[in-house]
Amino acid sequence: MNGRATFHFQIPVYFGGGAAVAGPKEGQGPMGPFFDLIYDSLQSAEDSWEKTETAMQRDALAKLLEKAALTDGSVDLLLGGDLINQLTVTNFAAVERDIPFLGLYNACATMAEGLLLASSLIGAGFIADAAVVASSHNATSERQFRFPTELGNQRPSWSQWTVTAAGAALLTNRPGPVRLISGTVGRVVDYGVKDANDMGAAMAPAAADTILRHLRAEKASPADYDLILTGDLGRRGRRLLLALLEKELADVDERFQDCGVWMFKENQDVYAGGSGAGCSASVWSGYLPRAMIRGQYRRVLLVGTGALLSAVSVGQGASIPAIAHAVELRTEGKEAR
């Protein structure tokens, strides 16, 4: 580990499988074919939106273990989080698993934080297998951070749609086709953005800071990667990120993509795109590993982005600090398990 918090995992860490669950709107988008389960409504069979989000995490974890042919007793550690107060959703999902649990919160960067921590623990030899899960739900997030959904408030054109989805990933020291090579821990960055609808603008500077630090530590340029995939900047935030990076880098191009842009079609009425902890979690656990295994990408940098606001801070007129964590993946040229 160097002074800029970029480190390589001494014991090889591999992606051991993934599962993703999504809501109906997300299921109709470009990522739909890569979800293991698509709910037919925002509430499904539960009697509250929050219980539905817990069910999504529960289903994602169950599907992950089923696909990996593992039981609770085979997993050393569960790491996870969501956007709801005190990680209520994840806590209720974790109580159903007989696995030691660490609850995490870094807003929409929670999945990236979990991948970093799990890889560090495996890479240091403390554990062999870890499951990482994160989720978000449009209705639970709207109720907590903005307005009661029943009011039907008009959203501005630069706002994003909180993704209803959960993603679960298994990390392991057992060899597989996709390896986690290194990671960079983000710094909290605050450019003074106060509009809670404009999270892309709040998060873009943090994403730029982490990407630049990771590239410098790796002595790499964007051209060395097939894909640099941010978590949920949306269309507006992605444009701002590219503008910031163009001041420092010569080869800023279409290899910079964003899960929030990928999640929905342009005609799905989501304005600037998707957001939420479940946005990157479901894309990284569902679509991306399959794309890497089939050879579409060989070297990928994942950059989880998080707006560290709360209902209280927004109500008090505070600015929105943000953070971004990076994890680098490469294919090992082996058959998928």
Structure description:
- The structure is a single chain.
- Helix 6 (about 200-220) crosses helix 7 (about 235-245).
- It contains 10 helices and 13 strands.
- Helix 1 (about 25) links the parallel strand 1 and strand 2.
- Helices cover about 35% and strands about 25% of the residues.
- The model has no long low-confidence stretch (mean pLDDT about 95).
- By secondary structure, it is an alpha/beta fold.
- The chain has 2 domains: about 5-170, Stage V sporulation protein AD (Peroxisomal Thiolase, Chain A, domain 1, 3-Layer(aba) Sandwich); about 180-330, 3-Layer(aba) Sandwich (Peroxisomal Thiolase, Chain A, domain 1), CATH 3.40.47.
- The two termini are about 30 Å apart.
- The strands form 2 sheets. Strands 1, 2, 3, 4, 5, 7, 8, 9, 10, 12 and 13 form an 11-stranded mixed beta sheet that branches.
- The whole-angstrom Rg is 18 Å
Structural class comes to: alpha/beta
Q: Which segments are poorly predicted (pLDDT under 50) over 5 or more consecutive residues?
A: none
CATH H-level superfamily of the largest domain? Stage V sporulation protein AD
Distance N to C terminus = 31 Å
The CATH architecture category of the largest domain equals: 3-Layer(aba) Sandwich
Averaged pLDDT = 93
Helix coverage percent: 25-40%
- What's the helix count? 10
